[in-house]
Each structure stands twice: as C-alpha cells, then as structure tokens.
Design a protein that fits this description.
Elements: H1 21-38, H2 52-61, E1 73-77, H3 85-92, E2 95-99, H4 103-116, E3 120-123, E4 135-139, H5 146-156, E5 157-167, H6 171-178, E6 182-190, E7 198-207
Parallel strand pairs: 1-2, 1-4, 2-3, 4-5
Antiparallel strand pairs: 5-7, 6-7
C-alpha cells in the first residue's frame, strides 16, 4: 500500500539550491572534468552539454536537502556520470558508493573521485550482482522504471533507510505498476529544476 504524499510548492527556481562558495567551485571543477571526458565517451547526451549546470548538476544537488541528517552511507545505482551520487558526495562529504557497470564510465568516476578528493568508492559491477551495500540512502536517477528499480534499491538499502528517486512524467504510472508488489511510504517533492519532474522519497520499503 502506498503511503501518504507530502508535496512541496511547485517551483523551478535553481536559486533554491543553496551552495557554499567552495561547493560551487568544486562543482564547477566537476563540470569541467565531465565536459573533458564527454569528448571521449558518452557521459551525458550531447544536447545537454550546454545546459549541464541546471539539467544535471543542480538537478542532482537538490537531493541533498532531502537526506536524513543521520545518514552517513550513500549508494548511487547506475551512477553513470556521477549524477546524483558524485554530486552528493561532493556537497555532503558523506561516504558514497557509486555503482556503474559500464567500465568506461566507471573509469571517469574513479578519475573524478581522485581529482576532487571525494569520500567515494566506485563499484564497476551490476547492481543486482554486487553484495548488498547496506546504505542509509540509495539514489538512482534515470536508471529504470520502479518495477525494475525497487528490487535493486531493496537489495542495497539497510533496514530503516530511504531511497531518493528522481522521476519524470511517468511517475504516476510507475507507482501504480508497483502498488500490488511493494509496501512503502512515499513522499513526493516537485523538482526545483524541472516542472515535469518529481522526486520520490521512499521509506519502509518491503515486498508485499
């Protein structure tokens, strides 16, 4: 059964993503590194390179405000270019595990972790085959629809943990598709950077 939804006011003002000068500087260094690597491998869609800051970086950074203060261990599934996991590691300095099966993308993540001195580990493996990470928070951005995604989240989420899952226009259909298979409490937050997007904060996740 799906839990109650708590909805924040709808807005798309990226100024609501609060960053310190140091965080801003380091995120710009990350963006420069991502652009450099994108000349060699497909980290983000070519059309998004010119709008990297809002489309990807601020979109990922806004998740930091939804993290429980007590959470110390994060896991990002299908991390790709490090969105949102690497961004959250940079902003929060919390232990972060980046899971990415594509070896070239994993190489980028390792380089970014090294150059930016982040408290992160890269796992170049399939999330379904990797031993459980027992994370306080699991994130996944544009990895899979909820019916495919939730088993992976449950595998790597510790008891009492939460998942932060950005979703697009299909969010209502995806929630309907898992209603009979999973029990969970769901909170919905409108994205600050994309009016068509929603962030799901999932807790009390268990198979029905």
């Amino acid at each position: 059964m799906l839990g109650s939804f708590h909805v924040k006011p709808d807005c798309c003002d990226d100024r609501l993503v609060s960053l310190s000068p140091d965080q801003h500087r380091r995120l710009k260094a990350y963006a420069d590194l991502l652009r450099t690597w994108s000349r060699r491998i497909n980290l983000v869609a070519p059309r998004d390179i010119d709008r990297l800051w809002q489309r990807h970086i601020l979109d990922s950074a806004q998740l930091a405000d939804l993290l429980p203060p007590s959470a110390t261990r994060l896991a990002d599934l299908g991390s790709g270019a490090g969105l949102p996991g690497l961004v959250l590691a940079l902003i929060t300095a919390r232990e972060t595990h980046l899971v990415e099966r594509d070896q070239r993308k994993a190489a980028f993540l390792r380089d970014a972790v090294r150059q930016l001195h982040l408290p992160a580990s890269v796992h170049a493996a399939d999330a379904h085959a990797l031993p459980p990470l027992m994370a306080d928070v699991v994130t996944a951005r544009a990895l899979a629809p909820l019916p495919t995604l939730l088993p992976l989240v449950a595998r790597h989420l510790r008891r009492g943990g939460i998942a932060l899952l950005p979703k697009g226009r299909s969010v209502d259909r995806e929630l309907t598709d898992v209603e009979g298979s999973w029990k969970m409490r769901v909170e919905r937050f409108p994205s600050r950077t994309d009016r068509s997007a929603t962030i799901l904060r999932v807790s009390e996740l268990a198979r029905a």
